[in-house]
Amino acid sequence: MTTPKAREEAVLEAVRERRELVNDAIPEELPIQRPERLYEASRYLLDAGGKRLRPTVLLATAEALADVEPLTTDYRTFPTLTGEPIDLMDAAVSVEVIQSFTLIHDDIMDDDDLRRGVPAVHREYDLETAILAGDTLYSKAFEIMLETGADPSRMVDALDVLATTCTKICEGQALDVTFEERDAIVPEEYLEMVEQKTAVLYAASACLPAILQGADQETIDALYGYGLDIGRAFQIQDDVLDLTVPSDKLGKQRGSDLVEEKQTLITVHARDQGVAIEDLVDTEDVDAVTEAEIDDAVAELEAAGSIDYANTTARDLVDQGKRRLEVLPNNEARELLCQLADYLIERGY
Amino acid sequence: MTTPKAREEAVLEAVRERRELVNDAIPEELPIQRPERLYEASRYLLDAGGKRLRPTVLLATAEALADVEPLTTDYRTFPTLTGEPIDLMDAAVSVEVIQSFTLIHDDIMDDDDLRRGVPAVHREYDLETAILAGDTLYSKAFEIMLETGADPSRMVDALDVLATTCTKICEGQALDVTFEERDAIVPEEYLEMVEQKTAVLYAASACLPAILQGADQETIDALYGYGLDIGRAFQIQDDVLDLTVPSDKLGKQRGSDLVEEKQTLITVHARDQGVAIEDLVDTEDVDAVTEAEIDDAVAELEAAGSIDYANTTARDLVDQGKRRLEVLPNNEARELLCQLADYLIERGY
């Protein structure tokens, strides 16, 4: 039995190894070309960092499906289930490019100043360039996916997943905006929003290799479900971490969701328990809130059982997601996907 | 020999007939669904009007290729060159949806208040919703194109055209932004920018039916070239009309391009002839400029031969585009595509 710490180390190493390959591929797939300022802005967040969790899910799922030992097969000429090779790295870069496009536009919409420790694109450049950089990444994601060289009918299915995923992300973001103006959100509504805004891109990352490699529909559906489950768990854990991780480790003010009155599974539950969420923190200015205020608010949320509720919900989703992986061959890559699921809710930040 | 006026009437009638069919299809392909505000904002400009010139090009090109009498064949079950039917209306709506997405984001970038006689989406709704509405239309265009039911390998080629077209539109818009900060633009640079920003969507509209119907590469390339030619001519004519059409007919202040110091083929040519473009109009406020100031400026541009130069360039492009149509069967729909090309530079507004 490995310890959680040892497990986390193993996952982080697996993520790191794939991240390096993805990081090498990004400038190849998205070179800085004319007009340079547009492409520099498009690459800005991609180059600033990121764990590349979604590409890791995509690449590891492909390894599990192909039943190959992890990291022994070139992702650029990766075997499908019918033999002919595809460029799987293109698919991995494509989902990361979609992720980056949504971050650029989200930062404009939320008027956030910082992302990955650097200025948001609309701060580093300007609003015009940030909108255009996101729009460029959007179509580039399709162009890059089109380069995998997969069989046309599989390619059509993959592009369909990519397009519907983008639509759902927009719908989820729009729901999130309406939630900010509403009080009585029930947990199901919150989870639906998170599914659309965050989880669908994990779902796409997990099922795209199955589609491109030619797996059967049952496998594709199970992997999509795995992605939805771990993606929702990931977002819930993000909400917990916002309350529990020291600001310096978090890279932003702890409790900022409370200050900004963002709906999370924790506040949705607490309100249902009779907690007056809007009174938990007095200020609406993230720079003005004190650690003591946040401590008191967190204590009240803990007393209402809301943090436990969020943790339990995330754990249940992860366990459900892991069970769905039984459609895959029992191999090292599948084990990695299980560990990755655990990591998403056990990670400290 | 028909008169230009009679020809224009015939073209307008052909556009009107197809526009009504496209207008019926838009709510079918893009219904208002949850979250309603997002979809209402996405539909706002589409519902506000528009000539549907790009869908008309697409539908008429398909009719010419299939060698059918215009408007006698259901676009929803349109014959390909290999017999099996496709839903061509989906392709027509898809390009119009792309056009609408670019208008919504362009209006944000240019901070324009009005479009098609109604407030821009970011004015009628808000910045967040306008960004998201554009993003939603972006992926919906791909989803709608995926519904044509075309053979997968043709579908892959069609989606490739759609994606690269969107990328080029972004690149063209980015070039346009950099031009605003530069003086010495040569005509070739201006035409390259217009090609990317405006003409590629006409090119896509003309070549997509050929791809979806299974035409050969020579035909696809010729139709793409026709679209590029007439799209550039269309934009040049737009620049001419901005100077020559009375404000009330134009729907905005005549000469606003001069006031806002936008680069057009006319100003690029005039500067080359030694005209001090920045001194043509004193004010930078569209609401403060007088008709007399615009009259003087236009007279100076005419004296420099710049308006003639723009007209000649547009005419040459249209003639070149029409010659490319010789790859098509000689039929009524091809004649319409020729008339449409003429209309783009003969139209009064």
TrEMBL record, chains A, B:
NCBIfam families: gerfarn_diphsyn. Keywords: Magnesium, Metal-binding, Transferase. GO terms for molecular function: metal ion binding; prenyltransferase activity. Gene3D superfamilies: Farnesyl Diphosphate Synthase. It comes from the Archaea. Its cofactor is Mg(2+). GO terms for biological process: isoprenoid biosynthetic process. Pfam families: polyprenyl_synt. Belongs to the FPP/GGPP synthase family. SUPFAM superfamilies: Terpenoid synthases. This is Dimethylallyltranstransferase. InterPro entries: Isoprenoid_synthase_dom_sf, Polyprenyl_synt, Polyprenyl_synt_CS. The keyword Magnesium applies. CDD domains: Trans_IPPS_HT.
